[in-house]
Design a protein that fits this description.
It contains ten helices and two strands. It is mainly alpha-helical. The structure holds nickel (II) ion.
Amino acid sequence: MALPDLSRLVAEHRPRFRTATEFVEAALRQGILSGTLVGGTPLRQDELAAALGVSRMPLREALRQLEAKALVEFHPHRGAVVASITADDAADISAIRHALEPAALALSLPHLTAADFALADELIADMDAETDPGRMGELNRRFHMTLYARAGRPRLLALTEQHLAAADRYLRFQFAALEYQTRSQAEHRALLAACRAGDAETACAQVAGHIGQAEGLLTAFLGSRSGPSGPEGG
Ligand code: NI
């Protein structure tokens, strides 16, 4: 897969940024989110440096930042490639989370302690303060697992954690692209309040809604994203 023409991205972004790293990060992010750079495209550093008119050091730094946002992946032999973010994969993970997380929560909720609630509060506060999407995914996972931890079903919890981790790249992407944080945090607070009140029915509905909201936002975004004729195409 060849690198597409990036001249328009360069012309749009170069004047807006002070440092080469900021410029490259913004231009590539826009290219990936708009679909100009499709999933699987190799990002060879010499080719990219020439196309963007920058040296390799800021390029490498920008690629690391994009990796933290789940927009770029590093493969041992192929180097950096554009991450494949597909609506089908997101929907698949989401279906599994829908099946597992309310079940884990229902089993865990009667056994949650004041210390569990305090930890969940702390994790919400940490997420409020966090700006790094990579850390955000990890905090989100810990928050959810704190609420499920007393289910007493180690296999169920292992599967749940595995699929929360699989959802992580989509969450990081959402935090970076969709300004998802405020909404997600409001849902986390409502979920925790229902758990504290011992209201299993509401809590399970909250967690199902939280998973569904995230998927809906992502599917809508990926669906509207440009193909050659899409709204943000070119
Ligand atoms: Ni969450």
